Amino acid sequence: MDFETELKLQAYLDGELPETEAREIAKFLAQDQEAALLLGELKNTRQALKGSEIVVQLPESREFYWSKIEREIERLEKPQRVEQKRPFIFRLQRILVPVTGALAVAVFLGITLFGNSGTALGETELATEDMGAITFRSESEGMTTVWLYDRGDSELSDEPAPDSVEPR
Amino acid sequence: MSDRDHSSAVDQDLVRGAQKGDMGAFEELVARHRDKIYARALSMMRNEEEAIDLSQEAWVKGWQRLAQFQGEASFGTWMTRIVINLCLDQLRKHKRQRTESIEAMDQDSGGVERQMPVITVNPTAGLERTELRQRIDQALAKLSYEQRTVLVLHEFEEMEYKEIAKSMDCSIGTVMSRLFYARRKMAAILADLRKGEEQ
To answer: What is the pTM of this model?
Structure first.
């Protein structure tokens, strides 16, 4: 008997053969003793297995077994909770960053324009004594340029730097 | 739902509760089906510790996928499918490790099983239920994991060839040949056990 026929015998036993093929196998079985014996062995094994799975009980208490499952579920769900909050923070950041930038530009422009409107450039205050400023205003261009420089380290300074050497 | 309600509720109600996030309902489902899920893992893995770990992993997966449970099969059957898939993944990992160390050994050749003489006398005839179960368990332990898995899925889970092929990620032809070799080998092992007992 070839292997294909052996597999067909098994499929016949398991009810997995189409009707026409099942009829052919039934005829073949009636004529072939070897096939009938093999089918008998397969049938015995199948019957022995049916409902004969060994009964086992989990060797852990209900509480202990569940506690491990619960911990794992909680562990896996925590990052999700953080992720659920994240988009709001990201959204807020997306709004705050450009708004803060725009505000900074607006404040800078406000100060600059305020300085332009007045003629008293002396009103401009510097936060530190070490810093110097030179302002150039072109009325024709409608433009004001302000240079900020370090008094101690600049060629623009009219005062000698502390570490500079006086020419003789 | 209180603890008392959980213990008296039917599975469908507990599943609905768990789907809404009721952990107490899910705990009750675990308590009801944990032995069955563990037994399936043990029958496939043949290792107590691995079976416990995989059964717990299955419950965690079950919780995560609860929304997908539509109730077409029973909750126990649905959970069993999850643990079977986890076991199959784990067995594939084991097999990869084995073949990496011993080169590729094809356990599916089945040449030996085909040459074995047909067992004409039923080797389990007259055995009591408990004894029969122990014999079957002993015999299953002697099969290769592919043969054992296909037998477990076909005989214990009553899955069709097509379903087994899908679960095991192989062709129906492979399922048929593995099942054939597994049955033939089982018959021989059961006959040997019978002979050993008679001597």
So the answer is: 0.71
